[in-house]
Amino acid sequence: MVPTFNEVENVGELAQRLGEALAGEAYEVIFVDDHSPDGTADAVRALGQADGRIRCVERVGRRGLSTAVIEGIQATSAEYVIVMDADLQHDEALAAPMLAALRDGADLVVGSRYIAGGGTGDWDASRLKQSRLATRLSRLLRAGDLTDPMSGFFALRAQVLRDRVADLTGTGYKILLDILATGGPKLGVVELPYTFRPRAHGESKLDSRVVLEFLELLIAKTLGRYVPTKFVMFSLVGGLGIVVHMAVLALLFGPLEVGFARAQVLATLVAMTANFFVNNVFTYFDRRLTGWRLLPGWLSFCAASSVGALANVGIAVYLFTSLSTVWYLSAIAGIIVGAAWNYAVTALYTWRA
Q1: Which helix (H) or strand (E) element contains residue 159?
Q2: Rounded to whole angstroms, how far apart are CA atoms 239 and 227?
Q3: 26 pLDDT higher than 70
Q4: Which of 64, 232, 250, 276 is least enclosed by beta carbons within 10 angstroms?
Q5: What is the pTM of this model?
Q6: For this UniProt entry, which segments traverse the membrane (predicted)?
Q7: Dihedral angle sign, alpha carbons of residues 251, 256, 257, 260
Q8: Burial track 5-15 (b if 16+ CB lie within 10 A, e otherwise)
């Protein structure tokens, strides 16, 4: 199972290498391509015309490695599935040992860079530290004692995914961690060493979006069962907005000697603006507004937030004055109602899916 995006230069060589690594096996290679503009899907279809074991599933209007893997596994009738990248950085020679481990009874076989015999290749110190930090964080999600739960190179019984598919988030690139963090019977896991190779062709997909998707996955698998993941992220940004508001208010009302009412209005506007831009790059990184769309997005966000502020005050005052609710519970209730309103309305109008 090979998810692809802009890998036209690699798919042919990978298909050849897998043919050599799996000689004597009955297998198919399913490339799940997210409508790559470089013609990856067409290249795979051309390979399939010459070799019926090679298939292409092209997705239009959908993006993401995890969902590509899920859809690919759901599209095969094979009992065992190996998941690997198309960029030739995963060692295809490990495919046969992975299959052997599954046939010996393992449910999941993980290619590890961090056990004896494995390695990270030419990674610099910064990338290695980031990877190890992500590995430690992943242990919050029932990743067990695996040395490399962030690996993108693994094999499993297809039924393992199918038993859990309804509860997978499908978020980001770390589908293995998503599987491990999803409930179900305890899995028999084996790790096999491999050395991560440098990319031969094309561009790396590792960027800030990958980090944000990982954070979203962490939230989804911890708090997401209780409240929507995006709402948690939105609320975190809201907390930052309170800090910004108070800092601006203190500056204007204090050293700059601006009248309180005017200072409050200006601080509110600055905090709304800060929240809009931080939400745009953090909470809604997958729907990020750019260019001319920023202005109407900011206006709709400020309008929604203004109504949310009125709802906040109205609920709090009503609870305190009419129902004699203690002041801090009244305030908290107002904040929750205002935040829920802001989240719902801006998700619907500012950052439409």
Answers
A1: helix 158-164
A2: 17
A3: yes
A4: 250
A5: 0.77
A6: 231-253, 265-285, 297-320, 326-351
A7: negative
A8: bbbbbbbeebb
How far is it, in rounded angstroms, from Cα 231 to Cα 339?
9
Cα diameter, the chain: 82
Q: Closest by alpha carbon to 180, among 172, 168, 171, 192?
A: 168
Quickly tell me which residue has 């995963």 as its tokens: 90
In this structure, what DSSP letter does residue 338 have?
A: H
Token pair recorded at residue 153: 């190179």
> How far is CA 259 from each of CA 72, 263, 272, 306, rounded to the nearest angstrom?
62, 6, 20, 21
CA torsion, ordered 229, 230, 235, 238, to nearest 10 deg? 160
3-state secondary structure (DSSP) of residue 117? coil
pLDDT digit string, tens, across residues 31-52: 999 999 999 999 999 999 999 9
Give the CATH number of domain 2-207; options: 1.10.10.10, 3.90.550.10, 3.10.129.10, 3.40.720.10: 3.90.550.10
Strand-pair category, 80-83 with 154-157? antiparallel
Q: In the structure encoding, which two tokens stand for residue 64, read together?
A: 């993401």
